[in-house]
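Posting for a labmate who doesn't have an account.
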Amino acid sequence: MHLKLDRLEKLCQGDPDRKLKYLKQLLEIVPKGMERLQIHLETKDRRALRRAIHYLAPQLSFFGIPDFALILQMEDSQFDNLPFEELKSKLKESISRIGLALAEAEQLAQSLKNTSNP
């Protein structure tokens, strides 16, 4: 499982409608951010990549997807000096894992919709 739902469970205290609300947020925000990330990877715009990562990090972190944590911990100079192909490789791996997590979130959201609207 690529999602960790302990924070969601704690926050929502078993309320399926609240869970669905937060899953919908994830499913709305993250794909938009991933599109930005792909564009910035193609244009090799490091500053824009960093902004896109910062945009995505809170949502991903909340759902236990730590993929960008190490990148965000880098100093600006480390990030700027990392060979672009290495950075691109790391981000592509993360994008793949995040895609799997989004698929899980979509399945969970659908399941919650089905149980709350019989």
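Reply:
Got it, the structure tokens are right above this. The chain has a mean pLDDT of 90.
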